[in-house]
């Protein structure tokens, strides 16, 4: 590595800028599909008494809880899915 010629290196450390993420409004965030699917499976499990749908609803609800981005709005969805 020490025999490598650094004079031909095209990188410019002085021109590097740190990455700054852009702020996204809560209305512009993508839809939480796992929370929506949890509600659908939960309703199907209650209405048709399918145990598999109820278990899938719990799994989707846990996935949605793990991937929460906005605490306030997602917490409402999770509570509705758990009910």
UniProtKB/TrEMBL annotation:
GO terms for molecular function: protein folding chaperone. Keywords: Membrane, Transmembrane, Transmembrane helix. The chain crosses the membrane at residues 36-62. It is found in: Membrane. GO terms for biological process: protein insertion into ER membrane. The keyword Membrane applies. Belongs to the Asterix family. This is Protein Asterix. The lineage of its organism: Eukaryota, Viridiplantae, Streptophyta, Embryophyta, Tracheophyta.
């Amino acid at each position: 590595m020490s025999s490598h010629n650094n004079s031909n290196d095209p990188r410019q450390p002085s021109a590097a800028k740190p990455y700054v993420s852009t702020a996204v409004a809560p209305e512009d965030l993508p839809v939480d599909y796992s929370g929506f699917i949890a509600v659908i499976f939960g309703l199907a499990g209650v209405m048709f008494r399918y145990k598999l749908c109820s278990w899938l609803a719990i799994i989707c609800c846990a996935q949605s809880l793990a991937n929460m981005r906005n605490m306030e709005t997602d917490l409402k969805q999770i509570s509705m899915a758990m009910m």
